[in-house]
Specification:
mainly beta; four-stranded antiparallel sheet; about 350 residues
Length: about 350
């Protein structure tokens, strides 16, 4: 026997269905958060892209493959977000993938690069790409994705920052080079010419600019511990060293220097996360976040809320981890990403 359904219930169900159809669909695309660039293993072609939405803690792994049905490539080195686009530098593949930062949809590729490391946008028609294995900085068009020219600097190049119309470029690696790797090169971005350099410590691995437009350069001291690691504060107007900080142990290898969103606090990795004010006269003695048996591999700081992201590469073969801390150093959460998480790109 069929069951009788009262007319009032039918009306209620139909009304609810209509109300559901009238509601606005949920906004698509990536919410505010951070891209995690997972390097993958050298020659394995297993680099990947993860995404973490900070408000909801939603994690998406293999994002590039999920959206574009294609692998990211061989050794993803870095990410730069400019406007509505993100430029992901794929070191051993020799190219840069360009994606929509809101959807991760593939927009184009910059090819014919040797061993690219970092991308620095100069203007709408020009960007510089540093290179580990080439003696030149590549010039590319960030809109047409074409390689347009090169700046011969006679050495490898690494981290880059833009101050006014000058690009400051670290000569980090001394591999197979006769020139000592202790210089910050100065490029005139209007003429694309190498015009000067500043001597710093051996192996400058990262640079940032503070609120007063001073350049900070962190130097590891060399792969073979050639000298004491050092941190340099430089006035770019006269190229004079304002302050040189020396670490207390030649065996240390500090790296991944960052600046907070207000330009007044430095952070770096050195068997833990260290923090210091740009006005401090000495290096900090104790970390704000202890490593505690982990292996901290990459560092990021959210420019909006100052949350700190630290990756752990584990054994370099299994998926790595990311730990998120507030700015007091208290852990908020942790999550598993891809193999060798090596860079963060904050997406707002």
């Amino acid at each position: 026997m069929k069951k009788f359904v009262p007319f009032a219930i039918v009306i209620a169900v139909l009304f609810a269905a209509c109300k559901k159809e009238d509601t606005q669909p949920e906004e698509s695309g990536l919410k505010n958060g951070v891209f995690i660039v997972n390097q993958g293993n050298f020659t394995a072609g297993n680099a990947s892209l993860s995404y973490f939405e900070s408000a909801t803690s939603k994690l998406t792994n293999d994002l590039f493959y999920e959206v574009n049905d294609a692998p990211l490539g061989d050794v993803a080195q870095s990410i730069s977000i400019v406007g509505d686009l993100a430029y992901i530098v794929i070191n051993n593949s020799g190219n840069i993938y360009v994606i929509d930062r809101k959807t991760a949809e593939f927009k184009g590729k910059i090819s014919q690069l040797t061993s690219p490391r970092f991308f620095l946008k100069i203007n709408d028609q020009k960007a510089y790409v540093s290179d580990l294995a080439s003696n030149s900085i590549s010039i590319v068009n960030p809109e047409s994705y074409e390689l347009t020219d090169a700046i011969n600097v006679n050495r490898s190049t690494e981290n880059m920052v833009l101050i006014g119309n000058k690009a400051y470029v670290a000569h980090w690696s001394g591999y197979l080079q006769a020139i000592k790797n202790n210089q910050v090169l100065i490029i005139d971005t209007e003429t694309d010419a190498l015009i000067d350099s500043i001597q710093v410590g051996v192996e400058p691995n990262s640079m940032v600019v503070d609120r007063d437009q001073n350049l900070w350069v962190l130097c590891s001291g060399g792969y073979d511990n050639e000298e004491i690691p050092s941190l340099w504060k430089i006035n770019v107007l006269d190229k004079n060293v304002i302050k040189k900080f020396e670490f207390d142990d030649i065996s240390l290898s500090p790296f991944n220097l960052l600046m907070n969103g207000t330009g007044d606090e430095l952070l770096y990795l050195n068997n833990g996360v260290y923090s210091m004010s740009v006005t401090d006269g000495t290096l900090p003695e104790n970390p704000m976040i202890s490593q505690d048996g982990k292996y901290f591999y990459a560092l990021g700081i959210d420019p909006q809320n100052s949350d700190i992201y630290v990756s752990d590469a584990l054994d370099y073969n299994k998926n790595g981890l990311v730990y998120r801390y507030d700015y007091t150093g208290s852990m908020l959460d942790s999550f598993e990403v891809g193999i060798i998480p090596g860079a963060f790109g904050f997406n707002y």
